[in-house]
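Researcher: Structure prediction, please.
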Amino acid sequence: MERQTLVEIAVSVGSVGVMIGAMMFVGTTFSENGELTTEGGKVFVGVIFLFILLMFGVGYGLAKADFESDAEQVESDNANGV
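Model: Predicted structure follows.
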């Protein structure tokens, strides 16, 4: 598997893990009698909004990442015997 694919998978899974963790935190912190409070609902919407921004940033960062030059560097190092 290519390095670029592995990086994309790791970053995506990590971002989703952060989202799940934040959702669990909000659910346990802002609940009464097993139900989410009004304030908790607002915080939950904020978490979703921040997740959207996070995924936008991750996608933008991955799109701008220069994986091609990394692959060329590895190929030239192997060709030189390094």
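Model: The first strand starts at residue 31 and ends at 32.
Researcher: Thanks, that helps.
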